[in-house]
């Protein structure tokens, strides 16, 4: 995997995992099947919930490869969607567009996908 995280980012993601889920942090064990309409819709639904919850000074996080009990299970590197694929799906399904960034980070030798959702003035978002 191409390393896309630095130590500070890794510490931040570990801290989010340690605190557990909240209205701004959601854990998913694995990616949905983004080749199927249902998988795209489920991703969009998760992003919509965060996009309509974040404030000007907060960020929402969808962490994939993490169990609800905070266990980092990791993801299969060969099946990770590209950040561009995720952005394109969100752009197609979420209106007005949500401010979303996807990256894959290494946490204790396991890959976790981080979808961060940032506040936008154009809200509420819908599908």
Give a short summary of the structure:
With 127 residues, the protein is α+β, with helices and mostly antiparallel strands. Helices cover 31% and strands 22% of the residues.
Structure report:
This protein starts with 6 loop residues before the first helix and ends in a 9-residue tail after the last strand. It is an alpha+beta fold and 127 residues long. The protein is built from 3 helices and 4 strands; from the N terminus they run H-E-H-E-H-E-E. The protein is globular, with a radius of gyration of 14 Å. The protein has a 4-stranded mixed β-sheet with strand order 1-2-4-3, sandwiched between helices.
What structural class should be given to the helix and strand makeup? alpha+beta
| Strand portion | 15-25%
Helix content: 25-40%
Number of helical regions:
3
Mean pLDDT reading: 93
What secondary-structure arrangement, pairings included, does this model have?
Elements: H1 7-19, E1 25-28, H2 37-51, E2 59-64, H3 83-93, E3 99-107, E4 110-118
Parallel strand pairs: 1-2
Antiparallel strand pairs: 2-4, 3-4
Q: Can you tag this structure with a few keywords?
A:
globular; alpha+beta; 3 helices; four-stranded mixed β-sheet; single chain; 127 residues
